[in-house]
Amino acid sequence: LERHGGAMLDAVEPESAAAPGENGDKLSTVKGCLFLGTVATAGMVAGFGTTLAVAKKRSPNWFSKGVMATAAVPESGSSLALRALGWGSLYAWCGVGLLSFAIWKAMGVHSLREFREKMQSIIPAVPRNEETQAKAEPFDWESLFKSK
């Protein structure tokens, strides 16, 4: 509490006040996430493109039959795959939602705060030892890939 002009005021620190190095750490984390996301996306696109190229090279006739719907095959491969993806996503979302709802009702909780408190009472906390963490040397990726 501070005394200001005869009135008692609470000293309030702004919530946005961060430690000096914290902004740099956040920026570094964001850059790392963007890099990993870009690499993962490029890998998926390259893998998918390579798979399509190999499939077209091995059997061009079957590949062209799967691209467009014909009288023999009334649905193209891409539309079949998209339909399967849609149904699979729907089943996954509904399954996880149903499982979460069942656990919620079985625990008899009414809010997220109650759920957190109940889970903390059931699951033991992991003890933290700051001395060990402070003394531990950071992991070195170079040492992992060095030949012995």
Short description, anyone?
It is built from 6 helices and 2 strands. With 148 residues, the chain is mostly helical. Strand 1 and strand 2 form a beta hairpin.
Q: Order of strands across the biggest sheet? A: 1-2
Structural class: mainly alpha
Major sheet description: 2 strands, antiparallel
Strand content: under 5%
Unreliable sequence segments? 11-18
Structure commentary:
By secondary structure, the protein is mainly alpha-helical. The protein contains six helices and two strands. It has a two-stranded antiparallel ribbon with strand order 1-2. The protein is flat and about 70 Å long. Residues 11-18 have low confidence and may be disordered.
List the helices and strands and how they pair.
Layout: E1 2-4, E2 7-9, H1 22-58, H2 60-67, H3 77-107, H4 112-122, H5 130-135, H6 141-145
Antiparallel strand pairs: 1-2
Tags for this entry?
148 residues, mainly alpha, two-stranded antiparallel ribbon, 6 helices, 66% helix, 4% strand
